[in-house]
Amino acid sequence: MNILVTGAAGYIGSHTCRQLIESGHQVTGYDNLSRGHQEAFDRASAGGKLVIGDLANTPLLVRSLRENEIQAVVHFAAFGLVGESVEHPELYRQNNVEGSRSLLQAMLEANVKRLVVSSTTAIYGEPSQMPISEDNPAAPINPYGQSKWEVEQMLVNAQEQHGLGFTALRYFNAAGASLDGLLGEDHEPETHLIPIVLQVALGQRDRISIFGDDYSTPDGTCVRDYVHVLDLASAHVRALERLQPGELLQVNLGSGIGTSVQEIVEQARRVTGHPIPADIVPRRPGDPPCLIANNQLAKSELGWQPVHSDITTILSTAWDWHHRHPRGYTP
Ligand SMILES: NC(=O)c1ccc[n+]([C@@H]2O[C@H](COP(=O)([O-])OP(=O)(O)OC[C@H]3O[C@@H](n4cnc5c(N)ncnc54)[C@H](O)[C@@H]3O)[C@@H](O)[C@H]2O)c1
């Protein structure tokens, strides 16, 4: 298939472009480079075509879809920082919700009826049920989660009214890097636990703060579900290859395994050989004690199986990437 990938220069987007190309698809990237890296796309696609453009530019999207005879879109482009979304909710409405509306409008104009879209566990807020399955009601507690939930609802309407086929993939915590060290995570600012822990091992930070050790979890620190970026990428390839116009699927992508913050720090000490000093500091508001995916639907509907999402592979690939590229994609 000819596929347009928005957010193709980002972390998950670049890994997915690489797997799509390896699976024989023709990829055109679309990214405004506000948060991504041209170098990530170039490495992932071995010099493929990247359109530098914003989601808000509907005419450019229509042109990109038509000129490249696009048959399906994978949509990663969005802002994804919870704290930033609380400070600037309007930015998230504009970029994530209105940006997706512009993409949808362009797709309908160009008669492209297949879409795989990034969603998030943040749509569930503080779920009562654990592990979390897709029938858990959406109840986002921050503007980022709200923006992603609004996008899913917009797409449900487009499925009903225009016969759009879409799969929303609700990721848990993306982590890890490519096995050959070519691609990895490079966010500025970095807010994700694993890269921050590894930055301590690299000497780029002095120590790590653990927010609360009095949660109702086995060691008192928060428990999260980490899923390897390569497993996320393979789910996108599967989702695309099975998707037909008019179909709708909303599915969790997580490993189904819970790992505590304390366990991540201990495992990172083992993998890096660095003591990684850690301080226990007060809880952050809005951090649920435990978020673990029920991933049965992804397994049954997509035939997906996470194969790299054990915490040792996640940490060792991430460490290999950060060690080789201490400044990320910056030369
Ligand atoms: N990283 C995670 O753990 C995680 C978890 C759940 C969901 N997600 C979602 O997955 C997607 C990808 O996440 P990521 O970690 O790869 O993020 P990323 O920031 O690395 O990649 C996003 C890319 O989108 C581009 N972009 C943003 N707004 C744009 C716009 N208006 N027009 C064109 N390009 C634009 C950025 O330049 C960047 O290259 C996002 O939608 C994010 O919300 C990520």
Protein topology:
Layout: E1 2-6, H1 11-22, E2 26-31, H2 38-45, E3 49-52, H3 58-67, E4 72-75, H4 82-87, H5 89-109, E5 114-120, H6 143-162, E6 165-171, E7 173-175, H7 193-201, E8 208-211, E9 223-224, E10 226-228, H8 229-242, E11 248-253, E12 259-260, H9 261-272, E13 278-281, H10 296-302, H11 311-324
Parallel strand pairs: 1-2, 1-4, 2-3, 4-5, 5-6, 6-11, 7-10, 8-13
Antiparallel strand pairs: 9-12
Helix pairs in contact: 1-2, 1-8, 3-5, 5-6, 7-9, 7-11, 9-11
Bound molecules: nicotinamide-adenine-dinucleotide.
Description:
By secondary structure, the chain is α/β, with parallel strands linked by helices. It has two domains: 2-174 and 227-253, NAD(P)-binding Rossmann-like Domain (Rossmann fold), CATH 3.40.50; 193-224 and 256-324, Alpha-Beta Complex (UDP-galactose 4-epimerase, domain 1). Helices cover 40% and strands 17% of the residues. The protein has helices at residues 11-22, 38-45, 58-67, 82-87, 89-109, 143-162, 193-201, 229-242, 261-272, 296-302, 311-324, and strands spanning 2-6, 26-31, 49-52, 72-75, 114-120, 165-171, 173-175, 208-211, 223-224, 226-228, 248-253, 259-260, 278-281. The strands form four sheets. It has a seven-stranded parallel β-sheet with strand order 3-2-1-4-5-6-11, sandwiched between helices. Strands 7-10 form a two-stranded parallel ribbon. Strands 8-13 form a two-stranded parallel sheet. Strand 5, helix 6 and strand 6 form a beta-alpha-beta unit. Helix 1 packs parallel to helix 2 (38-45), helix 3 (58-67) packs parallel to helix 5 and helix 5 runs parallel beside helix 6 (143-162). The radius of gyration is 19 Å and the shape is globular. The two termini are 33 Å apart. The model has no long low-confidence stretch (mean pLDDT 97). Bound molecules: nicotinamide-adenine-dinucleotide. Residues 7, 9-13, 31-36, 54-55, 76-80, 95, 99, 118, 120, 171, 173-174, 187 line the site of nicotinamide-adenine-dinucleotide (NAD).
